[in-house]
Amino acid sequence: MQYSQFVELYESLAKTPKRLEKTSILAEFLKKLKSHGKPQWIYLLKGRVFPEYDPREFGISDKITIKAISKSSGVSESEIMRKYKKIGDIGDLAESLVAKRKQSTLFSSKLSTEKVFENLKKLVEIQGHGAVEKKLNLLCEILNFASGKEAKFIARTLLNDLRVGMADGVIRDSLALAFFKDQPEMIEKIEYAYDLVNDYSLVFETASKGKKDLEKITIIPGRPMKVMLPIKVTDIKEAFRICGIPLAVEHKYDGFRVLINKDEKGNISLFTRRLENVTSQFPDVVETIKKHVKASSFILDSEVVGFDHKTKKYLPFEAISQRIKRKYDIDKLQKNLPVEINVFDILYYNNKAIENLTFKERRSILTKIIKEESYKIRPSMQIVTSKESEALEFYKKALKIGEEGIMLKKLDAPYHPGRRVGYMVKMKPDSAEFDLVITGAEYGSGKRAGWLTSYIVACKSLDNGFLELGKVSTGLKEKEEEGTTYEEMTNILKPLIMDGKGKEVRIKPKIIVTVKYQNIQRSPSYSSGFALRFPRITAFRPERGIHDIATIKDIEKEVKVIRSNVSGLQ
């Protein structure tokens, strides 16, 4: 398959904002890819060469991309940089320069997808002395054969900015349309398969063979998977209506959620809900698991909570977040910020996926294999009840000892990864806050010069794009001991800068923060149509991903609640 076919697809997708049109276009392409390509090439639809859970990146900056374009086009780097500042899109710039080079030569060899994909993969693997020169040579190998439009999308792929509106939902629906036309129930089956393995190459390969092959996809220990998500309620009656009676009631801990894996070879790995591997940051958790969980293989769903090593008092999430994002001084951190593992579910046990067992059955297995030890590991605190009064009493006691609230769970329900399906709900005191993603930032001045200190935050749109809700510039700290600092956040955001003008930069949407606010008002200034009043960042959430952030529906629902409350006071 020629790379030009991918480029034609990108161009077609970029021309329409309509989801149904994108789905139809991609479905036709997937049929061709099945016959003339390789399953892993589907990663190119998201500008990648590995599955979403794989943290490896190309490691290519704007400067290296400009160097490669310069070598390929014969235009000086200074001239390219001047034009880049004017145009603002390195893809469009690469297209114009490479197209001119093509016009001045008789060179017309075709560029294969195989060559593009393999060279991009090699970029990831190159490290150490001479890495930049080696990467440049690999880039020039493909840019020298590229047409203008091919160069545009190669450049955009390198910087993780394809600009074609390729959301997971479009890929899912396209797979269903391509291989299971007129079978709408297959959309959910495809999504379920993806949530188990987080690998569209595997899902594409099996779906193209038929329903039976797709349904053989199962949990793979040692590979991150999406967690099941709760529905939020504020009323105990609503919780009982959703979960039925009797139901289980558990503490909601103020820690970070982690899936603890042990594969058939005995390797233990820890993954956050955003699919990040944090095993090396928590050697103490690994040792505890080895000593206290008796099974040959498993996947445990848990909440890891920090506590003060002197007073044994449990600490808020912001304290333990220091350990998630640090990859050095591990010994010191685990001594000063020890953790306790609260296990509340099990999805895989002794070489078998058990997510389809009822929660009651899974809980029974969980309690049998865990050897409890205070401040090390324990099954989550739980009662089973049919009485709202008992659940409310449990809730009050949980709040009194400092827990966030409670989780209420349906006893006869399976585990459904990646979805809010009503098998469990969370209940905690009302707080005007949302988890949002940073999509832009602005450099500060004065004593904050050099730091990104003001952040554009956004929610998810209905088609999994992003809608801005305003700018927040308070909540972070200037000293490390007080929490996440402006300097730390700047270091986190800088590698994600896509482009910018002056002090303002556009950020690749990956970093999640919890934002509290006083009110929400309508505003034409932001793409959501709303703006948060007096927003404040209360926590950096490195363990959370895009699927965790608030949606525009959540915002609209909250606006209705606010209006209702105001009307009630009038």
Describe the overall structure:
The protein has 570 residues and is of the alpha+beta class. The chain has three domains: 3-158, DNA ligase i, domain 1; 231-427, D-amino Acid Aminotransferase, Chain A, domain 1 (2-Layer Sandwich); 433-569, Beta Barrel (OB fold (Dihydrolipoamide Acetyltransferase, E2P)). The chain contains 20 helices and 19 strands. The chain has helices at residues 3-15, 19-36, 62-73, 77-87, 90-103, 113-125, 131-143, 148-158, 168-179, 185-197, 200-207, 211-214, 236-243, 283-292, 317-325, 330-336, 359-369, 388-400, 486-493, 552-569, and strands at 231-233, 247-252, 256-262, 268-272, 298-306, 339-349, 377-379, 382-385, 405-410, 424-427, 433-443, 452-460, 466-472, 497-501, 504-507, 512-516, 519-522, 530-533, 536-540. Strands 11, 12, 13, 14, 15, 16 and 19 form a seven-stranded antiparallel beta sheet that branches. Strand 3 and strand 4 form a beta hairpin. The model is unreliable at 565-570 (pLDDT under 50).
